[in-house]
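Attaching the record inline, Q. Sequence:
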Amino acid sequence: MKKRIFTKAGLLTLTAAVLTACGGSAPETIALTPEGVGCLKQGAPVTSIPDRCDGLYDKVVKTTEEDMGDTYTLYALYAGEQKVAEIPAYGETIDLVIVYAPSAATPDGVHPGMKVAELQKKPGLKAVYNDGFEYELNGFRFRVNGMTESGFQKMDNAYAAGSELVLDATDFEPDASVVSAYYVGE
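Structure, as predicted:
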């Protein structure tokens, strides 16, 4: 009696064939650019935010929020029950789109859900402290999770000394990842 042993490559090929035959496919990558993401364009009037955007979201929840005495409108965008983006509108135009969707990637290939260890390999990446810790690359900012106590200590020391913050993989938990991405300009 012959035994059949499937390799990982064989199983991946089989899975891809079944998905193709059944009409399924991997989620399409949505470009997160300086101009915006999907149907959301930086600088466009907030009144132009559609109720749905194919491939990105299918529901908009609009609330009034308060921040240090100022009020603003927060547009939370959902695909099903998953929040995929937010637009905090302090005026009449879209000035900031914060993206949480793993399918949205910058020109450098950075996307929510990417492991911090992979992000840290990107040339030109800078650690910044701006009302909390973020990474910056080519005008995009990335909020991450999973910083260790040693990472927080390095951040506090660099901030107190006014020096550049340099973190490495040991300053994050192994499963630390990018939580959100947004464009601030270069």
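The radius of gyration is 20 Å. The chain has a mean pLDDT of 86.

More tomorrow.
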